Each structure stands twice: as structure tokens, then as C-alpha cells.
Amino acid sequence: MSDIIFPTLDLFLYDLRDALNLTEAEKQEKQAKFQAKLPADSKFFDPDLETKYLELLPKQKYYDFTTANDTLEGYYYPVRLNDTYGLQIDCSINNQTDPQTPDCFARLRAEIEWRLQGERATLGQTWMLSGWLPKTSSKSYEYIAKSCYHVFQTAANWSQDLQLLSPPESSKKQEKEITQGAKLFDKGANWSQDLHGKGSLFGGEVFELWRYQPLNQVNCHVIIMLFSDQESMEKAAELYTDWMGLFSYRNKILWAYSQSRLIKKTLVAYYKQVEANQRLISDENASSFRDQTIAAKLDDIQNYLGNYTLDLPKLNFQNQIIEINLFNYQTRLEIINQKCQKLGADNNLEFLETFSKEVKENYLLQVTKDYDIMEMALRLLETRLNAIRSQIELEKAERDRTFQTLVTVVGAGTAVTALMDFDAKQCDTLSTLIPPFKKSCDNPWINSVIVPVGLILIFGVIALCFKKILSGSRLG
Nearest CA to 228 among 8, 411, 4, 455? Predict the structure, then answer.
């Protein structure tokens, strides 16, 4: 069933060109990776200068292509937007007269993905489906848009399978299979769940569909534009450069938010490692640890805290990226609205403004709260670490005092014992003081070991008590 004339599919994809922490070699690598998405014979030129918008094929602007049997046509349009590479790949049915079925979007997607040969966007991408309806069409815009969306989503896996084959239009058998599969509607394409907004443009209707999973970095953004005639679609084509900028800011916002989720996950992991080691040291059995074991645990804690401290500012940095690109998104959307008013009436793109509201109320707020919480957690970890270090120092000082006391007892006792008898006859001396002890002096074990040790302890304790008395009198 033919529902749409001149079906056109555009892919807007974005790669990071430059960043603060990139070396020159890494920067060249990113440029080469982006250039790999273009035909080998394209005259790519990227001068090292600061610019807001730069076309990277200056001599030709667009790189046109057609398929072997001329059924499909399209072009590449690479640009640079500040620190970001942007690429529009346009592909359409080479027929502006005969209505086509929505199934043709499977061929268009397959052609674009075959040309990319597995190269993927690093910051994100947006698909745009467009065309105009026959005057005899009795179906609603939404019905046709829904059919196009289901076919398009169903084509995703099929087009990836074709990347190792010849150009996709050469395989009629696979196209027939995807057409039949599309009629069943892919389970992954849920129109009611994915539809985020709709509006009007030059008398036609616009639909926005979106799936986003930040932690898994899944961002599937699709715009469908259906017009009443060719003139309206040609007017809409004048906005392509504006869509390039708008989608760039949108995808960078979502990329930055996804990065913030990964950074937070890493920070939480560091926090748990530090907390586990601190708990282990503070455990009631920690006193049985060797000093080397405690020192090793403290080193681990310090390493985790070092990584935590380095990663924490990255969370705030992503917040700033979101703020800057949100401002740019709102500015570009305002420009688009102004252009639409000049080109024609009956335009309503308010649904695109809901993204700004969602970023403010959800993403920016969440990242700000996460930063505050993780910063507070760092202070708590550092405070607890300082407390543990203080406790360890106190225990060490206590052990040192105990050792000093032992040295005092033994030293004082030995000195006094030595003064009592230079010939080491302490037992005879003791028997003079305690007559019943005289018989025991005949035992060499008692005479040589027990008596000297006993005297050392006795006089050592007496000396220790005398020392404490003196210390107490000084304090008093």
C-alpha cells in the first residue's frame, strides 16, 4: 500500500573532536575515526582554528552518491561545531512522483548503515524520516508515521546484517523478508511508549520518538516529518543546518548525563572500598593485625581516596557541559522558530521545548545533587580516616609507654642489684636479711637465676613507684 512520496532518511551523527585532556595524538586519532565515516576520495579539510560552524568539504560542501541501479540517491555533509564533529548522511528514493510504501525506509536505513561500515557515533545520533503524502491519501499523518517508525525500527538488525554484503538494494529477498517482518511490528518499536511529542511544521505534522537509558548509554532519537506537498518539504529542507546544531546540543547533553552516571557509579565503588577497609581496621579484632597489615590497608584507602578526589570534579564538569549545551539548545530552537515564522505559518514546535524543561528539572538537578552528596561523602571518609590514624597513633604511643615502663623496671632493678653485691652473691646477701633462705643458696639454679631475677623485679617496681611519686609531686 503506497502512502508516501519521496521518502527521505537523514542521519545526524556526532563525534568528539577535542577535549581538555586529549593529547595531539589522540586528537588526530579522533579526526581519523570521524573521517573514516566519509568516502575515501572526499576532500576533507579541518584547519586548526576556533570556529562555531565549519563545513569540512569546502570545495564541494556535499559529497553526492547514487546506488548502482539509481534507485537511491543521497549525500554526505560533514561539519565542525566548536569541539564536535557533525555528519549528516541523507538518503532518499530517487523518485519524486510515485508514492512508496513505508517499507522503503528499511532500504534507506540499510543503505546508510552499509555505507558507515560499522562506524558509530561517539556522542550520539538522531534519525529523521520525512516525505509528503499523496493528495488522494485518506490515512492520517499519525497512522502513516506509526507505520514508518515500526518499519524503521525493525530494519535496525537487518541493516546491520547487510554490512558485510554488497549494497543493500541488490538483495531483493532480504528486503521482502523485512517487509513481511515489519507488518508484524517489531516488539522493540513501541509507538505509545516511545512517542514524546508531536507538533506541526509548514502544514505537515512532526513526531518525536525517543528511548534513553543513561547508564547503558542507549539513546535512540527519531524525528518523523510528514508534509502535505512537495513545496512544504522543500521549505523544511532549509532548516537542515539548524537541525544539525540543535541535535548536536541535545546529544551532547544526553552524552554528558550518561557520563555523569558512570562517574557516580565509579565514585560509589571507591566509597565502598574505602569504607570496607576503614571498617576492617576499626574492627575489634584489628588489634591482632600486624603493623604491616594496617599500613597496607591505609595505603589502599589513600589510593582509593586519591582516585575519588580526582574523579569528583569530573562530575561537576559534566554538569557544566549540560548547562552550556542547554543554553545553546534553547538559543538554536528560538532561531528555528523565527525562521519557521518567516517561511510560513501553521508551525508548532513546542514539543521540542519540553526537552529543555526535562534537562533543568531532572538532569541538571540530579547531577548537582549527586556532586553535593559525593563531596560530603568524601569529607566524611577523610574525617573518619583522620580519626583512625589518631587512634592508631594513640595505641602505638600506649605500647611505647608500656615498653618504656618495662625498661624502667628491668634497668632500675638490675642497677640496684648490681650495687648490692659486685661478686654476684646476691643469695648470701638475701639470706642475711632472711635467715631461713640460707639453705636455698646451696642450689645453683636458685643462686644464679631466680634470686637475681627476683631482686631485679623487686627493686625495679620500687624504682617505678618512686618515679610515679616524683611525677605526681611535680604535677601537684
Answer: 4
